[in-house]
Structure formats: structure tokens, C-alpha cells
Amino acid sequence: MPDNGKSALDRMLVKISHLDTLLSLVGEVIITSNNLTTTNRRIQDFYDRQQPLDKISLDMIKGAEVTSNRISSDLHSLVMDIRMVEIKSTFQRFRRAVRDMAKDAGKQVELITIGEDTMVDKTVAEKLYDPINHQVRNAIDHGIEEPLERKRAGKQAMGKLILRAFQRENNVFIEITEDGRGIDGDAIAKAALERGIIDERHFNELGDDEKLGLIYHPGFSTKTTASKISGRGVGMDVVKSNIEELGGEVTIETTKGGGTTFSYRIPQVTAVNILDCLTVRAGDNYYAIPILNVVSTLGMNESEVTSTLDKGKVIQYLDYLVPLYDLNELLGEKPLEKEEEITVVIIESKTGRTAFRVSELLTPEKLVFTPLSDLFYVQGISGTTMISGSKMGLVLDIVEIINRSMGIAYKDESHFDDGEIMRSDAPGDGAWASENKAEGEGAGAVAGDESKVTLSSDIGKEISHRDEFLMELDEMIKSADEQILSLEQNPDDNELINKLFRDFHSMKGNLMMVGFSELGSFVHEVEAILDQARSGDLALTTEIIDILLDSSDMIKKAQQAIVANKAPAIDKGLISSISKFKKPVAKKEIELVDVHQKTFHLTSLEKFNLLARRYAQDHIYQAYLDFKPEYQQTYLVALLILKRITRIGHVFCTVPGMEEIEAQSIGNQIKIMFSTNLGSDDVKKFMEQVLVRHYDVTDYELLQTD
């Protein structure tokens, strides 16, 4: 089924060292393939002569087997390494959300992240967002107390919310800790009793852990009214379900008045579709059982199987009674024929231990499996695979097959509480993809909204590398958000201010480069107030921080509109808020020069580069451009023109010079000396189709000087 929350660009960065290793392995695959071809010819020759294989041929076959096994293992390990990403990107998505939720709840909450460099599979990192988001909301809304209540309890007014990640053996652990009021197990049990979830007898027999476990019951909550942040706090059953889908488990530690920690344990291998399995045959069917879940295999006499009233057929294993089922019959197939000697496989998961009768144990194998789509879902089966390279087999879902044996039906719980829980609109990796319907509608509805300025629909025509542009813009937005939130805690940190200024400056340049001049001009306004902060003329108050965060949000929404091929929009109220703090800039007196009369002045290095380009048989051109910008400042257009020309060649010198352009001492003309391998006709076409059409160039002259 398609994932509606999935980003439009499902990409990730790959280290060069990983690509080098991959290239090396590809080379080994080619060599092994050639060796197999040689071996095949040799075997065919012996077959044609009707002679037995000699030792050399047998050694060649054995060598090919050993080499192919090693290469497949190395490729598997490499793919797993490539898929690994730092959990930092997932944790950082909550910085803004925690700030806003705490503000809405009237609470003071500090988010602390530990272990951001912990590596997890990319798919796991993406799937962790929803359960963590739910628990963060519950922690702020129901766990952490209001400042006055905390002070009365002898705590600091500022509550702490800690996200911690670490690895232990082959597992990743995620902990969500808050120092709030803790979970009252007795209150949970009482609420469960009142709602009919448990009866009086069970109520009196419950231990502390069992009381806490009741919060995983679907729809359970101790709250009677819904809040804006987390509804009634229900949905822990879905948190548990999401983590179990990753092969993990959730545990709780809580102290009344001291806070609560939810811990996720997730196996590292769950996101890779290659498994070490024990393969078995049951009648005419073949099954693969993940080797990590196999406890033991036994051969026994039918007389050793006993029957009980409550468990049906059982066998004894290490002084324990284990339920026994016919694997075929359990999955709705024809039962196995009765035999005196039977073969049994004992499996286990956190939900229990079960034994299955099978016909035959086959060789353990490393298998590649294909997950079943929802359309072909069968409880207890997770996917299909090829066994021994030729037989179609089914891969057992251990948790679900044990649940099936216990009579627990599969429940499709893919959503949180009936809309009561407000999902965060914080975008994640690939943030340009709309994560909820409201945002997608908003991007397309701005045209008729008087509070919005709808930008030109004639946008983005120059995005020849659209995906790369969106990825770069997304990284800049993420970086800007991080700097803004850090500045809220340290408003006088000049290094942070400079980093944030550079982020917005880069955004502006990228947007204008691809034709989003109006949006780039808005970013320039934000950049201007940051420039005032850099010079000490403007203090970064809470109001300024809010404006910066709102500006970042607006750019995100514009980004989503771009992906949807819709015109982005700017909030008029936000423009007005920025204008209140923007210091009027005195217009510079620009000394206009006749660029026709002023000659180029090349440095020694530029002259050397010019000779090198001539030696490479590039053409040398001098271009005079007349341009009249409609939306952005003249010097910005000049810089964008120069940057665009560098995509077809090399710029040696300009009139006015670069220092004058950056100092905004430029009129509406510029003269450029550049080299390119394009002929004069192609350069003229570039002038007409690119610079005239998209960069406000009104007239030009071109002279080829080589």
C-alpha cells in the first residue's frame, strides 16, 4: 500500500567510501562470473567425453561457491551500512514541536537529546517519528506539570524531556524520559475496571507492571476530556503496535512524582529483507523460520505428545509444557498425515513459546524475502522467498503465528486516536512532501486569500536539477530551524547569528537562481533583520524569534507548493511584522560608469587561466548586458547572472568588478569576459532563452575575441 506520508523524494546521502567498496565488490562479481563461465565449459567438456570430473574442476566449483558466499555476505553488510543514518535527524524534528506545545500548554519544557550519533536503519528512523511524537505530546500534556505545581513539589519550574538513543549488541534502544508526575498504576487499574476492560477479580490480582500494561489497551485513557495537544492521551496501543512491527518491544519505568521513561528496544536487522532462516517442509509446502526465533528442533515419538483441557496438544521441553500445532493445519492447509515419529520445531518470541509439527527439516539458509502486500495478507506469514534457489516458500511472522495459535486475531491499527491527537506538522527527511491534507490544501488555496500574496505562477522554469534544488533547500531550512531554536536559548551568540544569516543568504541565492525572485526577495527581508542583529542594532527578542520561526514555516509551505506545481505565497501579516523591525537603509549614491569605456583588468592568475582555456580550445567572449530588475535588487541580479554563466563556462573578469557588485555599487549594465566550449550561435541562444527570459536582461552585445 502506498505510504501517504512518504516524501516525494526518497533519497539519502551515501559515503564515497561505501561506493568504492561497492565498486570493488562489483569487480569481484565480474571475476567470479568469468570463472563460472570457464568452469561451466570445463564441466560441459567432461560431460561430452562422458568422463568423471577431475579434482581441478571440483576445486573450481568449490572455490566459486566460497567466493560467491563471501561476496553476498559482504554485499549484505555493505547495504546495511549504507542504509544507516544518525538518529539526530529524527530527534531534531521535535525541537520546534516541543517549544510550541509547551508554549500552548503554558509549561516550561527543556528538550535534551542524547546519543544523536546513534546509527539506525533509515526506514526505522522514519517509522520512529510517529510513536515518539505521540509520547512527546503525552509527556508535555499529561506528564510534566505546570510551573507552579512543580515548584510546590520542590522541582524546578523548567521540566525536562529527554530523548536518548544507544546501541547494545544488535539492538537500538530509544528512551523517552520526562521528570513529571509519573504514572499512577492504581488510577489506571481503577479506570480499566470502570470501563469494563478488567473485572473485579483481575483488578485485585494485578501487579504493578500489569497495571501499567493496561495503558496499551485500545482506546484506554484516564482522561475524560480531550486536550488540544494530545487528545485524551489514548493511542499507546498504536505506539506498541508500531514498535512491534519493527520487531521491537516497549517497556515502562515510572516513579510517582518522579517521572516516566518509555524504552523501545528495536533489532537492528529488522529493516533489511535478508534473513538467516531455518527452512522446513510441511507436506507439499515450504516455510522459512527466522533462525533467531528458533529455540530447538526435536525428533520424537507421537506417544510423547499429551493432551490437556486448556492447552490442547503439548510436549515437554526442559520441564515446561509447550503447545504443539500442526503448522499446515494452523495456516489453513491440509493437516499432515499421522506418523509414529514426528519432527518438531520450537519457536519463541516475547509473546510466548510454541511448537510446530513439520514433515522435514531442511538446510539453514540466508534468504531474501519479499513482503506480502496488504491485499494478500495472511496472519502468520510475512512474505515469500525462494528456498534452495528453486522452491517457493513462505516466511513465518513469528509474533503473528504465535498470536494465531493463541486465537488472537490480527488487528489493523494503523492510525492514532480518531483524530483527537493533533499530529505535528513538522516535516521530516524530504520535508517538501506534504505530510497532511491540510497543508496540501493550504498551498493550493492561497490564491483567494486576501491575507496572502500569491507569487507569480510562471515559476521554476530554470530548475534543470529540480530534485537537487529541493534537497538543498530542505537542508538549509533544517539548519535554519536548528540555529533559530539555539538562538532562543543564547540570543547573544554571534556565531549562531552568523550561521543563521548564511543559511537565509544561501536560501535567497538558490531561490533566485531558479526564478523564484519574489520568494527570494522575501528571504532577503528576513536576512536584513539578521544583518541588523549581527551588527548589534537589533536584539533577538522572543518576538523576533517567533518571526524567524514563522518565516521558516512559510518557506516550508512554499516548498510544498513548489512540489505540487502550485504558486507559493507569502503571508502579508508576516511581511508587516518584519517591516516593524527592519531598519531603513539609506540609498547609496551609485556612480554610474560607462561600462563600454571601462576596460577589463585581469590579475596574473586570471591571465594564466585565460591562456589555459585557450589552450583547451575554449572560445573567449566579451558580453555587454543591460538589465532592469522588476522585483529584486540590481546587484543580486548581477550575481545571479554571473552564477548562471558559470554553468556554461568560466568567468574571468567583470566591469564593474566583483567587489563593487557585492558592495551594491552597480547600475543596470555589466560587462563580462568569459570562456566556454559553446559556439557563438549557442551562446546567443543561451542569452535569449535564459538571460533575457529569466534574468530581466533587456539588451545585450556579444563579441568573440579568440
From TrEMBL:
Domain called Histidine kinase: residue spans: 68-270
Stored InterPro entries: Bact_Chemotaxis_CheA, CheA-like_dim, CheA-like_homodim_sf, CheA-like_P2_sf, CheA_P2-bd, CheW-like_dom_sf, CheW-lke_dom, CheY-binding_CheA
Enzyme class: transferase
Entries under Gene3D superfamilies matching the protein: CheA-289, Domain 4, Histidine kinase CheA-like, homodimeric domain, Histidine kinase CheA-like, P2 response regulator-binding domain, Histidine kinase-like ATPase, C-terminal domain, HPT domain
Location of region: Disordered: 424-447
Catalysed reaction equations from the record: ATP + protein L-histidine = ADP + protein N-phospho-L-histidine
Gene Ontology cellular component list: cytoplasm
Stored PROSITE patterns: CHEW, HIS_KIN, HPT
Stretches assigned to the CheW-like domain: 274-407
Keywords: ATP-binding, Chemotaxis, Cytoplasm, Kinase, Nucleotide-binding, Phosphoprotein, Transferase, Two-component regulatory system
Name listed for the protein in its UniProt record: Chemotaxis protein CheA
